[in-house]
Amino acid sequence: MIGSIKNVAITGGTHGNELTGVHLVKHWSKSPEEVSRGSFETELHLANPKANAEVRRYIDHDLNRQFNLKDLNNPDLQGYEQQQAKSLNALLGPKEEPRVDFILDLHTTTANMGMSLIINTDDPLVVGMAFYIKQKMPQATLFFNPSDRIKDNFLTSLGRLNGFLIEVGPIAQGLLNYQVYKDTHTAVMHALDYLEQRNTGQVIDLPTQMDGYQFMEKVALPEGSEGEITAMIHPNLQNKDYQAIKPGDPLFMTLGGETIVYEGTSTVYGAFINEAAYYDQHVGLSFMEKVNIKLTDD
């Protein structure tokens, strides 16, 4: 058994230009009764205040890639987000023996991914939370990307029992959208209710398996000899997150209007298609495979 959950952290603004989580944290700071549950304490944190003040994703480095244990213990990493990760580790962790049991991290995307529940572990607590929320919000998609908590570089990995990343889109960077805000709010309420029911020994009726999508690889935009982008997402693929991409389907369109097709031999599915935040890395989308996610016993 997992043992009692005593401390839950909700973090917003890990990426400073994703305002939904920022403003939910600010709202709940003034209305804490919404996130209060009887069996555990809920705390609220703005993860990247400097980037948020400048409405930028990050100042020096992507904060949500700085929580690998090796990096947290590396004194030579002195960028703003690298230092901020160390501060959050001291506040919520330390990662090897965390103070906080569980972390809910709130994100948005410019891609047409709807409500995506990102599962970074196969732990039954986290998988069960995803299943519970999807039962309440059938439009949600399960995004499965399991990794070892200690090696994981996401902020949620600071939690003793890991954590859960809620990703909602599409929404432009630096903006608020009521539907995205409301959907994120609703998902967090369900997540907290689930933890409360687990803590108090209530029976939660969940299926033993659900369909989802597992991350395979990031796919770069085509580049020229000097590293410049030479093509963009094909219009037939734009906004088609979680839809099938079959061999021979259009993938990119060159600046000159020529189609570049998917040359793989098996059907894949796209996610984070034309995500604005990944343009600095020239990443056009992620390939996913459809999987059956299983909920095991504790």
What do you see in this structure?
- It is a single chain.
- Helix 5 (124-136) crosses helix 6 (178-199).
- The chain has 2 domains: 7-206, Zn peptidases (Aminopeptidase, 3-Layer(aba) Sandwich), CATH 3.40.630; 213-294, N-terminal domain of TfIIb.
- With 298 residues, it is an alpha/beta fold.
- Strand 10 (250-254) and strand 11 (259-261) form a beta hairpin.
- The protein has helices at 19-30, 49-53, 69-72, 80-92, 124-136, 178-199, and strands at residues 7-12, 41-46, 102-108, 114-119, 141-144, 163-169, 209-220, 231-233, 244-245, 250-254, 259-261, 268-271, 283-294.
- The termini are close together.
- The chain has a 10-stranded mixed β-sheet with strand order 2-1-3-6-4-5-7-13-12-9. A 3-stranded antiparallel β-sheet has the order 8-10-11, with no helix packed on it.
- Helix content is 23%, strand content 26%.
- It has 6 helices and 13 strands.
